[in-house]
């Protein structure tokens, strides 16, 4: 009888541990309250301040292998706070267990984005600066949040911020796991299966020639390009309606879970 009870107790412990692990593994099935914060970090190598906004789930226990999402905003004419204009997305991702950081790429003292000339030429320095901002933020997070899963770094960028994220994938392909472009139009998407490439497209602003891979290339590399028939380019941030935001959130969460 004593041995029988010991066996039952062992099964009970195994069951508890299994359920705990299942809860951690399937954290995206839960919905957490979200904590927000902000800071300004100094990249001393470039003597540049980089404002960032944080969005994280409020949890009792740390999420094992918590994934990181870095978001890059669309062009905001150097106005402060552009990185906080995607709250529908940042808060939703954090509520699903992701650690989210949104970078303010533009400062009031920066030159405005050139609106004339060949974009791939005249805007390249802007995208390069954005890619270096992402790299700096990533390296800072490794210092202060070493428990994050840096083997599965996810970048999301809208419009000009999407071009920055895509350029980052070209420059540092082994640093990022997934790139999700919200209607980037200028920087050519990598033709590669790693990092994984996803793009949601608006119904009003086409990409430049060569930016999007052919159907054949999409199949070859597993790239997913999805057009949103009811969403224009400028409605991919907080200006969008509830239906548009819900659709983008659904797609993005689906991409991240693959």
UniProtKB/TrEMBL annotation:
Residues covered by the AB hydrolase-1 domain: 69-188
Signal peptide: 1-22
Domain of life of the organism encoding this protein: Bacteria
Organism taxonomic ancestry: Bacteria, Pseudomonadati, Bacteroidota, Flavobacteriia, Flavobacteriales
Keyword Hydrolase: yes
A Gene Ontology molecular function term of the record: 1-alkyl-2-acetylglycerophosphocholine esterase activity
Alphabetic keyword roster: Hydrolase, Lipid degradation, Lipid metabolism, Signal
InterPro entries, per database record: AB_hydrolase_1 (IPR000073), AB_hydrolase_fold (IPR029058)
Swiss-Prot/TrEMBL GO biological process terms: lipid catabolic process
PANTHER family linked to this entry: PLATELET-ACTIVATING FACTOR ACETYLHYDROLASE (PTHR10272)
Species of the source: Flavobacterium yafengii
Keyword hit for Lipid metabolism: yes
UniProt-recorded name of the protein: Alpha/beta fold hydrolase
């Amino acid at each position: 009888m004593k041995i029988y009870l010991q066996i039952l107790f062992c099964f009970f412990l195994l069951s508890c541990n299994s359920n705990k692990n299942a809860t951690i593994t399937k954290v995206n099935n839960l919905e957490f309250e979200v904590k927000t914060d902000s800071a300004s970090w100094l990249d001393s190598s470039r003597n540049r301040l980089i404002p960032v906004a944080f969005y994280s789930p409020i949890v009792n226990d740390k999420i094992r292998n918590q994934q990181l999402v870095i978001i890059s905003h669309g062009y905001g004419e150097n106005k402060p706070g552009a990185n906080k204009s995607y709250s529908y997305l940042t808060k939703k991702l954090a509520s699903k267990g992701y650690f989210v950081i949104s970078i303010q790429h533009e400062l009031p003292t920066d030159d405005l984005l050139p609106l004339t000339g060949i974009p791939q030429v005249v805007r390249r320095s802007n995208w390069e600066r954005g890619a270096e901002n992402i790299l700096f933020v990533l390296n800072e997070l490794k210092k202060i949040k070493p428990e994050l899963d840096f083997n599965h770094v996810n970048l999301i960028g809208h419009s000009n911020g999407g071009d920055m994220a895509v350029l980052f994938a070209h420059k540092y392909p082994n640093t990022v796991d997934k790139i999700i472009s919200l209607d980037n139009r200028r920087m050519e998407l990598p033709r590669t299966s790693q990092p994984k490439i996803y793009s949601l497209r608006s119904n009003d602003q086409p990409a430049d020639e060569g930016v999007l891979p052919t159907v054949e290339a999409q199949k070859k590399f597993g790239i997913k390009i999805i057009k949103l028939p009811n969403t224009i380019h400028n409605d991919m941030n907080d200006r969008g309606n509830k239906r548009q935001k819900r659709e983008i959130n659904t797609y993005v969460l689906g991409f991240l879970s693959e």
